[in-house]
Known about the structure:
The structure holds 2 protein chains of 2 kinds. Chain A is an all-beta fold.
Amino acid sequence: DQQVKQNSPSLSVQEGRISILNCDYTNSMFDYFLWYKKYPAEGPTFLISISSIKDKNEDGRFTVFLNKSAKHLSLHIVPSQPGDSAVYFCAANAGGSSNTGKLIFGQGTTLQVKP
Amino acid sequence: DTGVSQNPRHKITKRGQNVTFRCDPISEHNRLYWYRQTLGQGPEFLTYFQNEAQLEKSRLLSDRFSAERPKGSFSTLEIQRTEQGDSAMYLCASTSGADTQYFGPGTRLTVL
Lengths: 115, 112
């Protein structure tokens, strides 16, 4: 069962416009969410995170929104740049009393930013 | 801070051979994780260490897989009697808390 889902395998946007990447989850016990960016042949690079007690977190061009009632989060990139072209993964921390911190990842969304 | 390092970056082996990968976490990070990523999927959790203690193993980690973290520093992941289905990217991550994990570049395993 896929507890974290990224339903859009790919997204293409024009340079300078907004990129919106979406992620849905099923487990209400998840209490911390992260976005990672991955280039081919490299490991995931941490971008931004959000705790379940917040609904928004912003860091420069990147903003993550969390809607707990809908079990949905999104990553906004404004303005998008060609260097943002990569695979983006949404991940959730399983939380709980015995919090091991293991992450559960979505399948990823490939973002292409066209010059 | 040199980040998480993994060696080798690439490994090609024949089916039935044993392979071992190494992960050096960010210094002073007491938590270390192994994940596996196959094409078109996100990373999947394999196992977790806090210091030298292995505290959780995924059901994905069959008895052919073993991981160690002696002295709570670097970690090794060994796969015995490799199978073609073991071909994947093996990722290591470390953290000092239970939140943000920092990943290494991964080891790409190809089993022929």
